[in-house]
UniProtKB/TrEMBL annotation:
UniProt keyword list: Membrane, Transmembrane, Transmembrane helix
Iron listed as a keyword: no
Composition skew (Low complexity), residue ranges: 187-207
Keyword Ubl conjugation among UniProt keywords: no
Listed transmembrane segments: 263-287, 299-324, 330-352, 373-393
Name of the molecule in the record: DUF3667 domain-containing protein
Annotated segments matching region Disordered: 185-209
Length: 394
């Protein structure tokens, strides 16, 4: 009773409604002034952070370990102590895709390093696989172009004598190996001994570009601006593809990084289409449960939040495994087992979650889970394909 009488005669400064607590029940404004000393702002900041952290501690363990628990809590009206479904899904989506982007960059950099090492080491496998004279000459031109780029990179970094000697040795080995392969194919050996000039490389590249050039898109039922836009996107995609296939090492690496960045930049936006569509699938398969579409949407949001959290943990475990394995193979094996366990937990979790929320028998739940999963798989494949095409066209 004391708490109520302490607000007698106090009105909200925003809407003049009599206050019955620290917040106005009409407009929600706090009775406390924002004009306060700095230490008051610091206290409020830490209070807010600890409150959010408290919700995280209540939300994430329940999300990962208790299938369907958060959704049932939300349906029951107990929502304050947990993070809202959309915010939870969105934050985990951004974090998981960011971590995947880092992992993809790491894998691409390692692949590029292995390519450079094999290039300088002088591998002959590409010539052994060539069955035509033109194929041998084309591979030789590409390898010599890569060596020329490596030579320029070495000169820019201070002209390391050992690397320069390796490049010269690799060039001689490539020419000798190509000459031997041409001899087996019945071509004069001198064809591989001539130097490949920059003009010849440019002419070869121009010839490849002319072959890969595309005609303007002209779809009769589309407006002119749409055809023009499709033409620009198509030419950009061909240019990026050509760079990844025929560019020098620096250009290929830049094109790969640009493609990866564009794809991961597109994926979060595609979730805004994918999740409502998944909720629509749930609505169709559980139409006789007489649930609102919003309820199915909350199920979809929590399902995807769990998937993104699992994806984040699997990616982190994979990155740690790749970093630890060269130094401690046993630790890498343990992390590999953790990855496998996390991946196995995903379908089990989603099946149990579907069973607990919709309360049907295991047989019917398993059938619907399989059919919905099959439809969702192809929907996801199409979305990823569109993301890859858009990423390649940028």
């Amino acid at each position: 009773m004391k708490e109520l009488t302490s607000f007698e005669g106090v009105q909200c400064t925003n809407c003049t409604t009599p206050l019955e607590g620290e917040y106005c029940h009409h407009c929600g404004q706090s009775m406390h002034s924002v004009l306060r000393p700095v230490h008051g702002l610091v206290e409020e900041f830490f209070e807010t952070v600890l409150h959010v952290d408290g919700r995280i501690l209540h939300t994430l363990p329940a999300l990962f370990l208790k299938p369907g628990f958060l959704t049932l809590e939300y349906f029951s009206g107990r929502r304050v102590r947990y993070i809202a479904p959309f915010r939870l899904m969105f934050v985990l989506c951004v974090l998981s895709f960011f971590t995947l982007h880092l992992a993809a960059d790491t894998i691409a950099n390692r692949a590029n390093e292995r390519h450079q090492q094999s290039l300088i080491a002088g591998s002959t496998s590409a010539f052994e696989d060539d069955d035509t004279i033109q194929g041998v000459q084309k591979d030789l031109d590409r390898k010599l172009g890569d060596l020329e780029a490596a030579r320029a990179e070495n000169a820019k970094n201070g002209a390391n004598a050992a690397i320069a000697a390796q490049i010269e040795h690799s060039e001689k080995q490539y020419r000798d190996d190509a000459r031997q392969r041409l001899g087996k194919l019945g071509s004069p050996a001198a064809a591989a001994s001539t130097a490949t000039s920059p003009q010849a490389l440019a002419a070869s590249t121009a010839s490849d570009e002319s072959k890969m050039d595309m005609n303007p898109v002209n779809i009769s039922w589309l407006p002119a601006f749409a055809n023009e836009r499709l033409t620009v996107l198509g030419k950009s995609a061909l240019k990026n593809m050509r760079t990844m296939l025929h560019g020098n090492p620096a250009e290929r690496q830049e094109a790969r990084e640009r493609l990866i960045t564009n794809i991961f930049g597109t994926l979060p936006g595609t979730m805004l289409v994918l999740i409502p569509t998944f909720a629509l699938l749930l609505t169709l398969f559980y139409i006789f449960k007489r649930r609102l579409y919003m309820e199915h949407l909350i199920v979809a949001l929590h399902s995807h939040a769990f998937i993104f959290l699992s994806l984040l943990l699997i990616t982190v475990a994979g990155m740690l495994s790749g970093w630890v394995r060269p130094h401690a193979a046993w630790a890498g094996s343990i992390l590999g087992a953790v990855e496998f366990g996390l991946a196995l937990w995903v379908p089990i979790y989603l099946l149990v979650m579907q069973k607990r929320i919709y309360r049907q028998g295991w047989a019917m739940t398993a059938v619907k889970f399989w059919v919905i999963g099959w439809c969702y798989f192809w929907l996801l494949v199409n979305v990823l394909a569109i993301a890859a095409i858009l990423g390649l066209a940028r």
